[in-house]
Design brief:
Elements lengths: L2 H30 L5 E11 L9 H17 L5 H4 L5 H18 L1 H4 L9 H5 L14 H5 L13 E6 L8 E2 L2 E3 L6 H13 L3 E5 L6 E6 L9 E14 L8 E5 L1 H7 L2 H7 L7
Length: 277
C-alpha cells in the first residue's frame, strides 16, 4: 500500500473526527441555548358602559331644533276647544304648555303675541309651580375627583385598572392571572378577576374568544419563563365594586386617563382593545 494512499486515509479520518466534534458542539449549544417559553395568562378588560346619553354636538343640537320646527309647523292643530271648557283652568294650563312648546321650537319672538290666549295664564305662571329640571350631568364623584366611583363620567366607558405588587413589571395594569393546567382561557379570566378584585361584583364575560394579546418579557430573569403572553377578554360590570385584596389599589378610568397612568409599552400593546368613547 503506497504512502500517498495512507496519507489520504489519515486526512479523511481527521476530517471526519473534526466534523463529528463540531457537530456535537452545535447540537449541545442548540439544546442548552433554547429560548424559555412564555407563561400563559388571562386578562380582563372590565368595562362600565355609559349610563348617560352623550351630549349632542353643536351641529346635532341645531339639527334637532330644525326637525322640531318642521314638526310643529306641519302637525295638525289640536282641537282644544272640544276637550277643554273655554276659560277654564285646564284650558289655561294647556295654553301655557303649548306656548312653552312653541317657544322651544321657534323662539321667544314667535310666541310673544300668543300669551293672551288665556286670562288665567298669568295666575298659573305665578302660582309657584316650577318646571321639572333634569339632573346635572356631572355627578358628585366628578366634582370630588373620586376615581374609584362607578358614577363618574356617565357619558364615557370606564375600565377597571389595578395596581399590582411592587415586584410586577407594570405598576398599573388590567386585572389578570395565570392559566392553570387543563383550564380554558375564559374560565381562567373569570377566576382571576374574582381572585384579584373580590367576589362582590356582578360581571359578565362577553365571549369565549379573546379580543387581544399582549406579550412582554420579564424585567428580571426567571428560571422557567422568559415572559408572559396575556390574552385579554372583554367583560361588563352590572353591580358591585372591586376590592383591593391581591392588589394594592384600583381605579375606574377612561381611555385617556389610562394612557397617562400606565407604562408606554403596556399602553401601546392594549390601547386598540379599548373604546374611544
Amino acid at each position: 500500500m503506497s504512502s500517498a494512499f495512507l496519507s489520504q486515509c489519515q486526512r479523511q479520518v481527521l476530517h471526519n473526527a473534526g466534523f463529528a466534534k463540531s457537530f456535537a458542539k452545535r447540537s449541545f449549544a442548540t439544546v442548552t441555548d433554547a429560548p424559555k417559553p412564555h407563561r400563559l395568562a388571562a386578562g380582563i378588560l372590565l368595562n362600565r358602559s355609559p349610563i348617560l346619553t352623550r351630549t349632542p354636538t353643536k351641529f346635532e343640537q341645531e339639527f334637532f331644533k330644525y326637525q322640531q320646527r318642521i314638526q310643529r309647523a306641519l302637525f295638525n292643530p289640536f282641537p282644544h276647544e272640544f276637550y277643554f271648557k273655554q276659560g277654564s283652568v285646564l284650558e289655561a294650563q294647556f295654553n301655557q304648555e303649548e306656548i312653552k312648546r312653541e317657544r322651544k321650537a321657534f323662539g321667544d319672538a314667535f310666541v310673544k303675541n300668543m300669551e293672551d290666549k288665556s286670562s288665567l295664564l298669568l295666575n298659573i305662571e305665578t302660582s309657584g309651580e316650577e318646571d321639572e329640571k333634569p339632573r346635572p350631568r356631572k355627578s358628585e364623584a366628578d366634582e370630588k375627583g373620586d376615581i374609584k366611583s362607578l358614577d363618574r363620567h356617565g357619558q364615557r366607558n370606564l375600565y377597571l385598572l389595578v395596581k399590582g405588587q411592587p415586584e410586577d413589571k407594570y405598576e398599573w395594569r388590567f386585572p389578570k392571572g395565570y392559566v392553570e393546567s387543563g383550564e380554558f382561557l375564559h374560565e381562567a379570566a373569570k377566576r382571576d378577576l374574582q381572585a384579584e378584585c373580590g367576589p362582590d361584583m356582578n360581571t359578565w364575560v362577553v365571549g369565549k374568544k379573546p379580543v387581544g394579546l399582549f406579550e412582554y418579557e420579564y424585567a428580571k430573569p426567571d428560571p422557567q419563563f422568559q415572559g408572559e403572553k396575556v390574552f385579554f377578554y372583554k367583560a361588563h360590570i352590572f353591580a358591585g365594586q372591586a376590592k383591593a385584596e391581591k392588589i394594592t389599589d384600583f381605579a375606574w378610568l377612561t381611555k385617556e386617563e389610562i394612557e397617562s397612568r400606565v407604562d408606554k409599552e403596556y399602553w401601546n400593546g392594549t390601547k386598540d382593545m379599548l373604546s374611544d368613547f
